[in-house]
Amino acid sequence: MKAPTVTIIDYGLGNLLSVQRGFEYFNAKVTITSDPKVILASQRVVLPGVGAFPQGMKSLNDLGLVPTIKELALRGTPILAICLGMQLLMDEGDEFEITTGLGLIPGRAVAIPKRSKKGNLQKVPHIGWNSLIPTHRESSWESTLLEDNVSGDFMYFVHSYMAVPNMEENRLADTFYIDQRIPSVVSRENITGCQFHPEKSGIQGLKILRSFISK
Questions:
Q1: Residue 168 annotated among the catalytic residues of the structure
Q2: Is the pTM of this model over 0.85?
Q3: Can 199 be counted among the known catalytic residues?
């Protein structure tokens, strides 16, 4: 049986090695590159990311990768975006300044409120293990990258901003931080974004990577 292949986009802002090892756990063949031609020829593409929204978009633009990623989306190539990568899927982000995003999922990346809905101070960034819950009670994760996961699975988060889609239908899973509902997994057609780090989330996170390379 031919080994699954995945390409990780290197734009200078990502935990590339840990993501690579996560996929290699399932014997996937992993390519890390910033070459648009290689990326466009890929079967599956991962957009990782650690850092600030403006810096992320500047790096993608400087490397000429924004049109590349948009072309992948149009072609129907499976795309998995992680942490900052998920935020970059939105129309824009307001970290430090208003910055245009990839516009692949309508919405905005905004700061996690520093006060709970009750007015109490809450620690930001949101760091640590937290559980996933379905965004919609009646929804099913069947045929999504969460199909092997269950409500309550814990994932590892490190972030100060959150990607908020305009349409609820683009939210697969949320996480409650104090009393704030944070979008944790977003999806639109061939694109899925995870706010947490599946590659650092133990067996439950690895299930998501396995689903990605098995589709």
A1: no
A2: yes
A3: yes
